[in-house]
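Students often ask what a 'structure token' actually looks like in practice. Rather than answer in the abstract, let us consider YkgJ family cysteine cluster protein, a protein of 241 residues. Its sequence is given first.
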Amino acid sequence: MKQFLSLEEIQAKCEQIQDNYEIDEDKFYQIIEKWAERDSSVEEKIVSSFRELLAVVSTEMTNMEASVQMDATCRQGCAFCCYFPIIVSEMEAKIMKKAIENFPEERRIAIQDHLSNYYQKHGDRVEEITSLDFNEDNDFKLKYRRSLVPCPLLNPQTNQCMAYEIRPIPCRTYVNYTDPTVCEENLMPKETVSFEFLYEQYMGVLNEFMQYLYEAEDTAFITYPDDMYANDYLVNWLKVL
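Now compare that with the structural description of the same chain:
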């Protein structure tokens, strides 16, 4: 019988990471420095740096796990976490949508068709759950989770994300290291771990890059800095793609 980490063991390993692991900030800055110098359109600079910064977040998580010998038990086809509310800025949402627009045609059309069907099916419930005030209501996550409304980018047939490589920080940094059944049996399992603190490095560097583009008087499809400070549910931002 496979032995999984206990809650206490997970907490101890997370404390080790907090005490001993140093985030490699240079990896984040190297990306925007590269794209600042690249001879390409501003749109490409923004979308490509966004994708690469997200990839660095995943790399940092992998390195943290390795530093304390902790292996995720999340598996392909497990999508219980895809029913949580995801809050992102308008800037992030616009870049995600632009990245999807640049997907190969067949994939892009499949996502657009899926979203159209999604809002036809869940529209009323989406309106209800997104009326929850994520700034003031301390229980909004649990209330949203109880609705059992999936993420708009979840393919319910395969239980896979349709835009996996550009999934935002809240999705990317939520991980289980114990028996996977805790996610099935609990709406908000206490054993799961969030590395969402990496958002500080990711967004700090992305913001610096946008400031650089703003000073150069070309931020393409981003209205900077307004888009950075407008936050909403991802399910609301994706209503128009």
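One point worth highlighting: The chain has a mean pLDDT of 97. Ask yourself how you might have guessed this from the sequence alone, and why that guess would often be unreliable.
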